[in-house]
């Protein structure tokens, strides 16, 4: 990794590529054609990526919505078993992230991503028919496996398409989709909850069946609609495909040598100190992020709201999370100083958790959750910052899932910080989230200083 100044990337449209002092090739990149290609990806691929993440997080977090209307009672859950169900998802999620993303690089985005969607859709539908805790554990483990590489895979594809200085807003679209999925999840859950038992199946079972079926349709369609690679996209003309290949060569001349798959490049990712420092920061930020995503309905219910409106009350909170993320991403791209924005986000989130801990007020606690929705902003900004400064592609394709894998380990811990014994105010969970978010901010400061220091 290099300093943050590298984010500006190559700006010349006419540069010389060299494989030695005696061989230079001049490559011209038509700026108008390049802009036209980027717009095509914005209109034809980015919305698909956002939709994929919406359904992924719907199928991942709907267990939190289902908890509000009978899930725990129907499977005879005892003690802290709901938290354990949340934790089991991240066990396989962490283990299989790197293999999934490397598979995207090897066999193409359309095949691997659509396969993953079909797999997790089937598991989600199956969750609607479980009868006991053990079956729930099996479904969560399988769901974690199927969803493991989806976000880092999409982020990797984006890093191969867009210029460095404009990647932040695109990754923000993906991350915004995760927050938006919470709003959709609350709305869908509320609607299904009002319908009650149908055809002998409880409402929470229909939640899994309906959302899983929708995801299954999307997965099948993605096989035909997603490109295999950025320079093989079905919607590009032959000259546009050639430009994408030339532009990749241009970026490689700036960032690193053009390469085929190499285990040595993967090893570079695993031994880069900056990657591990960033990973620790992501781990810290992951605890409040995943705790918020799963337990927000439970936390809001703890403020004293009735079960019938809890899922509705999550909707504006998630929408605020989308707004904060959009603002932070816009500022980071505008200023091209991601570190400054990343340091400010934890301050906002910590303020929210401090209010939730310090006041028993129903209104005050609910307002605090709006501030805490900033948890969705930190990780995508840090991932973009790191992706912009790692080359070659194979190293990046290993580093990104490695970072997300370590961040997702925090999901195992986050699932345990809101035990039922601490209801209704969940001071312990909110306190841990505050502390870990603060440490994440400190991690950015440390990473920035180490990254700016002279390297031996």
UniProtKB/TrEMBL annotation:
Its principal location? membrane
Q: Does the keyword Transmembrane apply?
A: yes
List residues traversing the bilayer.
Answer: 43-61, 82-102, 108-130, 137-159, 171-192, 204-226, 273-296, 308-327, 339-359, 366-386, 398-418
Q: Name one GO cellular component term.
A: membrane
InterPro entries noted in UniProt: MFS, MFS_dom, MFS_trans_sf
PROSITE patterns named among the record's database cross-references? MFS (PS50850)
Q: Which UniProt keywords apply?
A: Membrane, Transmembrane, Transmembrane helix, Transport
State where the protein is found. Membrane
Q: What SUPFAM superfamilies has UniProt attached to this entry?
A: MFS general substrate transporter
**Membrane topology reported for the UniProt record:** Multi-pass membrane protein
Tell me which residues make up the Major facilitator superfamily (MFS) profile domain.
45-456
GO molecular-function terms, A-Z: transmembrane transporter activity
Name of this chain's protein? Related to allantoate transport protein
């Amino acid at each position: 990794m290099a300093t943050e100044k590298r984010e500006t990337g190559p700006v010349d449209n006419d540069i010389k590529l060299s494989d030695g002092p005696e061989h230079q090739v001049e490559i011209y990149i038509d700026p108008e054609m390049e802009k036209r290609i980027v717009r095509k990806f914005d209109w034809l691929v980015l919305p698909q990526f956002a939709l994929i993440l919406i359904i992924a997080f719907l199928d991942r977090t709907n267990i939190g919505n289902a908890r509000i209307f009978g899930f725990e009672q129907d499977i005879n859950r005892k003690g802290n078993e709901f938290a354990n169900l949340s934790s089991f998802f991240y066990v396989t999620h962490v283990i299989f992230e790197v293999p999934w993303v490397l598979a995207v690089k090897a066999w193409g985005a359309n095949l691997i991503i659509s396969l993953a969607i079909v797999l997790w859709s089937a598991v989600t539908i199956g969750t609607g028919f479980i009868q006991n805790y053990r079956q729930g554990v099996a479904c969560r483990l399988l769901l974690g496996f199927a969803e493991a590489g989806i976000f880092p895979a999409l982020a990797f594809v984006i890093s191969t398409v867009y210029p460095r200085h404009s990647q932040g807003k695109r990754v923000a679209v993906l991350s915004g989709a995760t927050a938006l999925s919470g709003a959709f999840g609350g709305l869908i859950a509320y609607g299904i909850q009002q319908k009650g038992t149908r055809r002998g199946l409880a409402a929470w079972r229909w939640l899994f069946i309906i959302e899983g079926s929708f995801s299954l349709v999307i997965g099948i369609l993605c096989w035909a609609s997603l490109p295999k690679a950025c320079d093989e996209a079905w919607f590009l003309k032959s000259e546009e495909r050639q430009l994408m290949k030339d532009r990749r060569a241009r970026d490689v001349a700036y960032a690193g040598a053009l390469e085929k798959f190499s285990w040595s490049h993967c090893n570079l990712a695993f031994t880069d100190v900056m990657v591990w420092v960033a990973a620790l920061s992501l781990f810290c930020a992951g605890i409040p992020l995943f705790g918020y995503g799963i337990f927000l309905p439970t936390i809001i219910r703890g403020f004293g709201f009735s079960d019938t409106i809890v899922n509705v009350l999550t909707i504006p909170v998630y929408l605020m999370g989308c707004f904060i993320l959009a603002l932070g991403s816009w500022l980071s791209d505008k200023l091209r100083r991601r570190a400054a924005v990343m340091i400010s986000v934890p301050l906002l989130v910590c303020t929210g958790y401090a209010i939730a801990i310090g006041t028993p007020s129903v209104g005050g606690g609910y307002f605090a959750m709006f501030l805490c929705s900033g948890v969705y902003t930190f990780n995508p900004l840090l991932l973009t910052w790191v992706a912009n400064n790692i080359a070659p592609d194979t190293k990046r394709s290993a580093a990104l899932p490695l970072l997300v894998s370590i961040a997702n380990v925090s999901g195992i811990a986050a699932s345990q910080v809101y035990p039922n014994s601490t209801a209704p105010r969940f001071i312990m969970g909110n306190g841990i989230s505050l502390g870990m978010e603060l440490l994440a901010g400190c991690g950015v400061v440390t990473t920035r200083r180490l990254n700016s220091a002279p390297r031996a």
